[in-house]
């Protein structure tokens, strides 16, 4: 797979994939909206502080590679942008809703367990359980046009393996294997999963509020 997104490129594509589903009324996105999405403090790892100039440079690079296109005809002079990364007429990749959701959150947040991906895609797609999420991730890892995902070795003391996308090139597995305390128990693993779920619910609520605020500001400006 001849794709090697920089961190900024992965963040921009991930944001466009996300907002296409979560805020369809505002999609395609303006440069300002993309910058705001890239710099969100919730649902992003790591948190970034990109300038509009940096985001525009990234958009231009992605346009030159045909992953983004500028669109017109939305009743305004402000340029808007949409992805051509997947599931469009000119896209190389055609993913299921679940595959697209999993790829999106990995582009936005890096390596994650199947349980984390299941929870964090709740606004993008639905997984019946963690096993279904694992099955979809394994499909991406064995995809005939891929692999698009790699399953990382289980960390010491951790219950679950994590998965990482390969759209930014090959993964140095050793960088992701960080030893965890050997005393970690199954109980603490369950508690950790519950904490992740609660954190995601709070992050989703914060994101909803921020998007509503942006909509109100656009209506009154």
What does this molecule look like?
The protein has 221 residues and is mainly α. Helices cover 49% and strands 9% of the residues. It is built from eight helices and six strands; from the N terminus they run αβααββαβααββαα. The strands form two sheets. It has a three-stranded antiparallel beta sheet. Strands 4-6-5 form a three-stranded antiparallel beta sheet. Helix 1 crosses helix 2 and helix 5 crosses helix 6. The radius of gyration is 18 Å and the shape is globular. The N and C termini lie far apart (44 Å). Mean pLDDT is 87; it is low at 179-188.
Properties at a glance:
3-stranded antiparallel sheet; 8 helices; mainly alpha; 221 residues; globular
Q: How many strand elements?
A: 6
The helix content is 40-55%
Q: Cα-atom Rg, whole angstroms?
A: 18 Å
* Mass-distribution shape: globular
Write a brief caption for the model.
With 221 residues, this protein is mainly alpha-helical. It has helices at residues 7-22, 31-38, 52-64, 97-109, 114-120, 130-141, 173-176, 186-220; strands spanning 29-30, 68-71, 80-83, 112-113, 149-151, 162-165.
